């Protein structure tokens, strides 16, 4: 899926990129001074100057991911988030240029955004799946030029090179070659039915739903009438043993009723026999109720 920006958005992106490229580069000492002022003094002006100087780095990194079909403006904005994260975590004492440190954060933010938005079906975010998504096509093209080899051998070499399982390579290969399709797309060049009209409905038919509802109401009424023929103690046993999700054990019911668990078993059996006698004339499968 490729997202096309409207003309106004394209102009805004172009102006932003041009402005980024006009920002002056920083000398090493001045860069470190800005980083210290932001970290130690919370100097927002120093932060603004620091990140403005490296917006060109964000634009350059985002441009390398244009082939994934997402809006360039969004890629740049996500890269800016990574740039801000780098500024918040940068330690000048490490004697590393800010651009070197920020590159990882910018690329990571853009890649995470692509993984979240490239497909409506979320792609796994584990390190191996991320590596597969961004490296597999390039690696497959390079390995394919090395000589004659079949698809199976190529998958094995990719799995070995990226230190992942072959089945993960096969799964990602399927994902990358199958773009998202809307169920509202029409079939054929002349339109007509949509793809979703061909999907079978495996649920019950309307008449089956109505019939099941009527049967359920009837069974509920019959069971209520049958329970009314039991004594209070028998009804308690049936309700606690047969009609609740977390049924009580014979021993627990015995303690509750002040009788032995064997007596509870006898009362339960007698109550079941009574219920069957009442229901047998009304229900074909008494076991469905009890």
* Span of the ends, CA to CA: 55 Å
Compute the number of structural domains: 3
- Average pLDDT across residues? 81
Describe the biggest sheet? none
Oligomer: single chain
The CATH top-level class label of the largest domain: Mainly Alpha
**Total number of β-strand segments?**
0
Characterization of the model:
- The protein has 290 residues and is mainly alpha-helical.
- It folds into 3 domains: 1-118, Four Helix Bundle (Hemerythrin (Met), subunit A) (Up-down Bundle); 125-199; 206-288, Arc Repressor Mutant, subunit A, CATH 1.10.10.
- It is built from 13 helices and no strands.
- The protein has helices spanning 7-22, 28-41, 44-53, 55-63, 72-89, 98-117, 127-144, 151-162, 166-177, 206-227, 232-242, 250-257, 261-279.
- Helix 2 (28-41) runs antiparallel to helix 3.
- It is elongated, with a radius of gyration of 34 Å.
- The two termini are 55 Å apart.
- The relative contact order is 0.05.
Secondary structure layout plus pairing:
Blueprint lengths: L6 H16 L5 H14 L2 H10 L1 H9 L8 H18 L8 H20 L9 H18 L6 H12 L3 H12 L28 H22 L4 H11 L7 H8 L3 H19 L11
Helix pairs in contact: 2-3, 4-5, 4-6, 5-6, 7-8, 7-9, 8-9, 10-13, 11-13, 12-13
């Amino acid at each position: 899926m490729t997202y096309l920006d409207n003309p106004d958005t394209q102009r805004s992106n172009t102006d932003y990129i041009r402005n980024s490229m006009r920002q002056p580069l920083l000398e090493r000492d001045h860069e470190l001074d800005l980083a210290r002022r932001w970290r130690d003094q919370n100097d927002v002006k120093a932060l603004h100057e620091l990140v403005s100087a490296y917006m060109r780095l964000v634009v350059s990194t985002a441009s390398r991911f244009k082939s994934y079909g997402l809006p360039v403006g969004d890629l740049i904005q996500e890269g800016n988030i990574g740039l801000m994260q780098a500024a918040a975590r940068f330690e000048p004492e490490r004697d590393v240029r800010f651009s070197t440190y920020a590159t990882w954060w910018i690329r990571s933010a853009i890649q995470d955004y692509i993984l979240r938005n490239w497909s409506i079906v979320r792609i796994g975010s584990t390190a191996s799946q991320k590596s597969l998504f961004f490296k597999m096509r390039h690696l497959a093209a390079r390995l394919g030029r090395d000589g004659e080899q079949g698809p199976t051998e190529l998958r094995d070499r990719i799995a070995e090179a990226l230190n992942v399982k072959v089945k993960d390579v096969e799964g990602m290969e399927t994902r990358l070659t199958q773009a998202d399709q809307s169920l509202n797309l029409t079939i054929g060049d002349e339109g007509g039915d949509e793809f979703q009209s061909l999907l079978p409905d495996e649920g019950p038919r309307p008449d089956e739903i109505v019939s099941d509802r009527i049967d359920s109401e009837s069974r509920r009424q019959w069971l209520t009438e049958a329970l009314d023929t039991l004594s209070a103690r028998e009804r308690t046993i049936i309700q606690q043993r047969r009609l609740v999700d977390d049924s009580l054990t014979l021993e627990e019911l015995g303690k509750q009723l002040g009788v032995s668990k064997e007596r509870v078993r006898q009362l339960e059996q007698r109550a079941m026999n009574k219920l069957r006698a009442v229901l047998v004339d009304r229900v074909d499968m008494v076991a469905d109720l009890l």
